[in-house]
TrEMBL record:
GO terms for molecular function: hydrolase activity. PANTHER family: LMBE FAMILY PROTEIN, N-ACETYLGLUCOSAMINYL-PHOSPHATIDYLINOSITOL DE-N-ACETYLASE-RELATED. This is PIG-L deacetylase family protein. SUPFAM superfamilies: LmbE-like. Its EC number is 3.5.1.-. It comes from the Bacteria. The keyword Ribonucleoprotein does not apply. Keywords: Hydrolase, Zinc. It comes from Actinomadura rugatobispora. InterPro entries: GlcNAc_PI_deacetylase-related (IPR003737), LmbE-like_dom_sf (IPR024078). The keyword Transport does not apply.
Amino acid sequence: MAHPDDVDFGSAGTVAGWTERGVEVVYLMVTDGDAGGFDDGITRAEMAELRRDEQRAAAKCVGVTDVRFLGYPDGRVEATLELRRDIARVVRQVRPDRVITSSPERNYERIYPSHPDHRAVGAATLDAVYPDARNPYAFPELLAEEGLEAWTAREVWTSGGPTVNHHVDVTEMLPRKLAALRAHASQTGHMGEQLEEMVRGWLGGNAVAAGLPEGRLAESFQVIDTA
């Protein structure tokens, strides 16, 4: 994901369900979120450190302990070859079956997930999964200098985009999702009880679209077969 808190807004309930069933999950944040927050009294370097700590705390709320950061500048991410290589490196290190990222497509019905950094990271991640990570001749230095063998991830799940083909019922995981979001105090602390109201509204709308019973909550994705 592009920023600390992106995975928690889009996918924390789904992740909590996976880790509860014993699935190992690794987080990779492309930026440190140094352009976020509302406090002019701290430096951008201090904000980056704070947001890294918040993401680690949020990850623990949903059973994730391996959190990695690439340190790209917040607000200036582009889907460059360098970023593709850095994501492909982690794919080869972790060797995942499934990758979650943000959608590279702009969502005109709900614009907030379509931050330029989100779209750039989504595009770079899809390219890193196919073809970069699986092609031993793409970024050959990853194999020659770091010993990282090619790896094929079976599928990519994107969130926040205009196309949805899969929903995950996360009703029972709502407390853990909210705990993860509240761990990002620099971003959500000012929202108070409105945070839960907002999240319930999003997830409830997703559940209705999925045809789930009244009162259920869901996170939505586009699942892409990359095997």
